């Protein structure tokens, strides 16, 4: 048996183990017992004039009574400051980013410092919430009283947005959230992060990862090392976002932003299994094309069946993490090739040019 065939077989096995379970944040069937918990929502906002009205409107309609909402204007160059003033929220402006801080960590740190609630809920400005989202988060949090983080359901509409497929899947792999038999998860998801203010302050907040571009994943890893368990979930019907509606260049910029660093920061055994899974998916269409070209009927039949099995396995995960249509999964080699190319771009930005750009700011 050729090497590629072994790669395909082992890759399928790795994929089944990596995505064995998909924990979802679901609406609780019971009324929240802890209505007295004071929730401080912190929204770091840099050039978010399009998104802020949506997330602030969602927060106004929550079934759970939110104690305070803090919007941190992180040196915006659009109408973000004016929009913040239009809503009944606490506005903070951080005009300069200290040289030792990177990304949104400084904005989050200042927002947390101003918060007076029992629980801190960090939310990215492009996130959308159902009416029961905060109540569902509180219900999950009070189960174990440990930090929780959510990867929102990714709403994808335009063709260029579909190129985020494998990046979303690999993000899930990196945390071991869906891994078969995993007792621990690793890292946080950036868009939604809930933690008690006492625990956050006790460990210095974002100060311990202030110079890290992948700050949320790194902060979660820090808590892992302290023996603090983390609950990770997929947003499902409760929490969603639409990240890159404008153009393919926004997809390229976002995922090139040190995605390679995040991948290499994950556990070695998770990284190895993810590489094998992706290698198997890459080898499969290559071997199928070879068999078709030499008219090997039996091989074409077997590989076609394996290809369809792989397509449906990808679709099972894809429809849980976002609104990806079936045909995107059917044509997955196109999106996997784009993943490889963007990942290479991320490697170059990180280890060769040693710089990257995010929302007009060099990091």
The CATH homologous superfamily of the largest domain: Spore Coat Polysaccharide Biosynthesis Protein SpsA, Chain A
Indicate the multimeric state: single chain
The CATH architecture of the largest domain can be given as: Alpha-Beta Complex
Report the count of strand segments.
Answer: 12
Radius of gyration: 21 Å
Number of domains: 2
Distance between the termini: 47 Å
Order of helices and strands: HEHEHEHEEHEEHEHHEEHHHHHHEE
Unreliably modeled segments: none
Round the mean pLDDT to the nearest integer and report it: 89
Quick overview of this protein structure:
With 363 residues, this protein is an alpha/beta fold.
Characterization of this structure:
The chain has two domains: 3-20 and 266-357, no CATH class; 39-162 and 177-246, Spore Coat Polysaccharide Biosynthesis Protein SpsA, Chain A. With 363 residues, the chain is an alpha/beta fold. Helix 1 packs across helix 11. It is globular, with a radius of gyration of 21 Å. The strands form three sheets. The protein has a seven-stranded mixed beta sheet, sandwiched between helices. A three-stranded mixed beta sheet has the order 5-10-7. The chain has a two-stranded antiparallel ribbon with strand order 11-12. The termini are far apart. It has helices spanning 3-18, 52-60, 80-85, 105-114, 133-144, 165-175, 197-202, 215-225, 248-256, 259-264, 268-293, 297-321, 326-330, 332-352; strands at residues 39-45, 68-73, 90-93, 119-123, 127-129, 148-151, 153-154, 192-196, 231-234, 239-241, 357-358, 361-362. The mean pLDDT is 89.
